[in-house]
Amino acid sequence: MDFDKDKFKNVLHFIIYKCGFRNTVGRTVLHKLLYYSDFNYYKEFNQSITNESYIKKERGPVPIHFEMAIEELVEEKKISLGKRRLPCGKIMNRYFSLKGPEMNFKKEELIVINKVIKKLSHMNGMQIGEYSLRDGPVKKTETDEIIDYDLVFSRKSNDHDKVYVKIR
Would you say 45 and 108 are in contact if contact means Cβ atoms under 8 Å apart? Predict the structure, then answer.
């Protein structure tokens, strides 16, 4: 699988466009929304939307090209960055869309991405991080290792609060 940088940036921009205004959506939430979009699509169609690689970290899956994509989207004036102080004192990175994303998605890709956004974007970083650690592919991967897409086929319906929903 070759990483599709443009597609990854478009999916990231689309997610920011759809839910970046929410106070809960920062870097950690974006990481997980990207992960679920790619892995749920892979489960349904046996291919990823972006072919991104995700590494298991202490708080769940992290896309390896995230920072590069954010920097390029800022340079292209498609998104802007902000900061928000959380009640616990930590600083949350915020992302805001400055214009609409390129809508070069297949119908099925949009359905999966929108379902992931609807199901998970209300969670804060801590909640979605803990949630993602219960996902089968993440559970079966060692920390700092790349998560194998094929592990998505070992998901059990009770494994993961049914975040995955068939679209056919």
Answer: yes
Q: What is the DSSP string of the chain?
A: ----HHHHHHHHHHHHHHHTTSTT-BHHHHHHHHHHHHHHHHHHHSS-SS---EEEETTEEEETTHHHHHHHHHHTTSEEEEEEE-TTSPEEEEEEESSPPP----HHHHHHHHHHHHHHTTS-HHHHHHHHTTSHHHHTS-TTSBPPGGGGGG--GGGTTT------
Q: Which pTM value belongs to this model?
A: 0.91
- Residues 78-102 have a mean pLDDT of 87
pLDDT at 156 over 90: no
Question: Measured between alpha carbons, how far is 28 from 26 in angstroms, rounded to an integer?
Answer: 6
pLDDT tens across 99-120, in order?
A: 999 999 999 999 999 999 999 9
Q: Report the pLDDT averaged over residues 56-67.
A: 97
- Strand partners of residue 61: 56
